[in-house]
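Before drawing any conclusions, I looked closely at one protein, both as residues and as discrete backbone shape codes, quoted below without any editing:
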Amino acid sequence: MSEIFGIPIQAFMGQLMLGLVNGSFYAMLSLGLAVIFGMLNIINFAHGALYMVGAFMAWLGLTYLDLGYWQALVLAPLCVGVFGVLIERTMLQWLYKLDHLYGLLLTFGLALVLEGLFINIFGVSGQPYSIPDEFSGAFNLGFMFLPKYRAWVIVSSLVVCFATWYVIEKTRLGAYLRAATENPKLTQAFGINVPLMVMLTYGFGAALAGFAGVLAAPAIQVSPLMGSNLIIVVFAVVVIGGMGSILGSILTGIGLGVIEGLTKVFYAEASSTVVFIIMAIVLMIRPAGLFGKEK
């Protein structure tokens, strides 16, 4: 069988795999957004900028410090996580009792500042980041060649996403986190340091964005605009999955990446808008999102 729905199987499977790669990035970034919103009630518009900062830290480490890919994959998310902690302690902690709009405006302004700073330093042109030697070449699947690095992106993203979901939903630490957000005063009465947990939660969400940025660096050119080009789609993914739903963000991110990739095969003109069309349909049918809780 050389065709699927009248499309050459190589083209069909190629777009399917590309959709899985894009879906992995959507899942990683929407997961960080969902964690921050679900735990802290902050609409974090700076998430795309933190993703960009993670990619640039990997590139800077390679260019000026001779840090390899594996070191960057550990150090860059840690540094972005620490930066996230500083943001939470110096700015966001004063907004928790205010309307969501204030957090959105603050993080949106922060994203613009970070993007403008990196544009002034590095310009708008992308910086290349070479694929690690371990992932050079491709797997021969018979009907197509799958680049090893794309396979690594898919697998590592899924492992991180579902590990995060398991920790938050199935462990005692996750129970403490959920309790701290639902009833912070009662949780603190049981001796749990709620401000510390809130701070670390935002730092962890930022670190997820940094991790996604390092994964993206060899796949696309490292650019100050890479976060702003992606964040609107990621917000649409979170809205479709349900604001604050961890599992919803993961499954929706992967699913929409695949749908977007396959749309390029059947009707390429709609590939850039299909996510927003789906979002409009979902919001009309289920305003809380596919996995969100109706109030």
In short: The mean pLDDT is 85. The beta strands are 3-4, 7-8, 138-140, 145-147. The first helix runs from residue 9 to 40. The two ends are 49 Å apart (CA to CA).
